[in-house]
Design goal:
235 residues, mainly alpha, MetI-like fold, globular, membrane, transmembrane, transmembrane helix
């Protein structure tokens, strides 16, 4: 117990003093996860909107696939990306393996289905409420999507935050394609796993504290956005 207490004290000291290695790892984690979230939203939101307002043959099958992909095993995604980016793979000539870009690709594949499925549900529910009004106004599909996205903006921001929370906590895929290389591809989750196995509990605990603070911050933002959306609905 005494050793754990000392490790926790050292961890708090690292966080409060702004340790250079700690800040580097946190900064890379945020950069990779935010980049993946932005790309996933750029891909997932239009897909979710298409599935929400369109009716076409095979739509139910598409919904099943998108919902199923929400549960993609991270290590499988990491393996698939690794095989494509390795020297023997079709994209090996790009030299992206064991780089932050490879980690962004893996995280994007993981969270795009989450963004698409959640945004589809949000927009489809809203479209059901306004469908008659949209038809009476003779709005085009683009205008309909624009109106739905604007009206659901707080809920869609919540979707984006959910995707970011999933990305920043990911370890399986990023350690396969990133390699956990010091000063290059080491992010919070992979560093926690490595430092714990090495017995360096202070750094692992410090990163765990930062990760928990980020998770709490994301949840607080989600709750705040939900409250704002509720007030807007009843205003």
């Amino acid at each position: 117990m005494q050793a754990i207490g000392q490790a926790l004290a050292l961890a708090l000291s690292l966080v409060l003093s702004g340790d250079g290695d700690l800040l580097e790892i946190v900064g890379l984690s945020l950069r990779v996860s935010l980049s993946a979230t932005l790309v996933a939203c750029a891909l997932g939101l239009p897909l979710g909107a298409l599935l929400a307002i369109s009716r076409f043959p095979g739509r139910n099958a598409a919904l099943i696939v998108v919902n199923a992909l929400m549960g993609l095993p991270p290590v499988v995604v990491g393996l698939i990306v690794y095989l494509h980016l390795s020297r023997a793979g079709p994209l090996g000539f790009l030299g992206l393996l064991y780089t932050p870009t490879a980690m962004i690709i893996a995280q994007t594949i993981l969270i795009t289905p989450i963004v698409a499925a959640l945004s589809r549900q949000v927009l489809e529910d809203l479209h059901g409420e306004y469908a008659e009004q949209f038809r009476s106004l003779c709005l085009s599909r683009t205008q309909t999507v624009g109106a739905l996205v604007w009206d659901a903006r707080y809920s869609l921001l919540t979707v984006g935050l959910a995707g970011f929370g999933r990305a920043v906590a990911e370890v399986g895929a990023v350690i396969i394609v990133g390699g956990n290389i010091d000063h290059l591809t080491r992010v919070m989750t992979t560093a926690i796993a490595l430092e714990t196995s090495k017995g360096d509990l202070p750094l692992a605990l410090a990163l765990g504290i930062v990760l928990m603070v980020i998770a709490l911050g994301v949840n607080a933002l989600v709750q705040g956005l939900r409250m704002t959306a509720t007030r807007q609905a009843y205003a």
